[in-house]
Amino acid sequence: MPSNKEQFSLNIFDNSPAAYCVLELVLNDEGQPTDWIYRYCNQAFADIKGYRLEKMIDRSFLSLYPKPDTKWLEVCYRAAYEDIPGEIDVTYEQNYRLTVSPIGRKGFCSGMICKPLNTAQTDRENYIIEQLFPEYVSLYKIDLVSHRYEILRIDDTTNAKNIADNDPEPFMNFDDFCRQYAETYITEEDREEFLDWHSCENIKKRVNLANKISYHYRSVSKDGKSTYYEAYAVKGTVTDTLFSIFLGYRNVDSILYKEKAVQKKLKEALDENNLHNEIISAIAKTYQYISRIDIDANWYEVISNKKINDIASNRSGIASVDNDLMIQKVIADEYKEAFLKFADISTLPERMKNEETIVTEYQIKDGSWHKLRFIEQKRDENGRLTHVICAIRSISDIKRKEYALLHQISEVKKENALKSTFLSNMSHDIRTPMNGIIGMTELANRYPNNLEIQQKCRDTVLEQQLLQQYRCFCLAAIF
Fold first, then answer.
1. Which of 123, 195, 254, 445 is the most buried (most CB within 10 A)?
2. What is this structure's pTM?
3. Residue 185 β-bridge partners
4. Which helix (H) or strand (E) holds 219?
5. What is the C-alpha separation between 16 and 44, in angstroms, rounded?
6. What does the pLDDT look like over 300-320, one tens digit per residue?
7. Could you report the per-residue pLDDT of 162-190, keeping only the tens digit for each?
8. 363/465 Cα distance (integer angstroms)
């Protein structure tokens, strides 16, 4: 009996540089293709496959490779039983195109592997795979036109591995694959969004616009453990009949945790900033001028300025320079020296070493009064003051009230002094007539039978009593 090579006159392919083979399809009881047997292949074909030639002849595909792609079986079936040729893109270190053709005998077909596909496109796809492989736990190549897919990598620990192993028709339809995954591992409230993003039609629309797209979702295992993943799709080859993408998945739990930590810090910083703004707003209701000063940089920025008299209108500038200008133009002469020492920001870190705020009052040339306060804003890791808030308010009304009160106090003191002098004098004037009355009484008692002396004593006592009554009346009128 002639060999397969002789039957099909294949000797001409033995030394051909083109990789060539003849396949015999293996069908199951239902007539569906499940495997094929290499009835012939030349050395070029064996070289691409990576086997010795004698090890491939009359061997089934499943005996050489663990799992065939059903799309290959379908293409081979149509060529072997329906006389319909077809093409398949395959990868063996490089990307090739396998042309499958009928050979005139039912159940058999030929396969010829052509030279590598477009080099630029192949290099781009290899680059994409190399970039996605290291960090993505699963990687797929999907044709968004036919919805067929190829698993390039899938980690044994992933939920997708369980779906792929139990899929009765693997690689046939990526939408169906995603639907099985969603029904098993995606929560009901997230399922619609997950399927909408993974729909081949929707991915095609998005990738057509952006070339690269990504999506984050939560996968829940059967034991209830939640894992967060990122899906990342990159456009591959696009022709009139093909629109391929590479779709990779990676665990982003650690990234999300870091992101949440960053968001927490940002929120805390925002809350702190809002609090600072609220404090500044509250201060601004009292202070007409507020600025922030960077001591080391000798620079200030105005936060609020209600245009109080003669305060500089610059929004920012060199602190020491503008301080000197203000002293020369604005500060009253008698306060210039004190103001210069107080406003010297180079000495602030030392002066506020143990203080949160310091304050001074000064008068400007138009006679109005201001109060300037430095408030601690920031210190470095050593506790040295680096930033302060400068707040200025007008206190002219307070000073006027203060002067009015001081004048009233002075007047009261003068009045009290007059009263003290009067009382001192009255005390002397009261004691004098009382002594006279006592003396007349004693004189009258010595001469009880001398009527003339008695009469003089009575007249003197009466006169002193009248004088005493008058002085008491005056004293009562004063108080």
1. 195
2. 0.38
3. none
4. strand 212-220
5. 7
6. 988 888 765 455 567 888 888
7. 887 776 566 678 999 999 999 999 999 99
8. 61
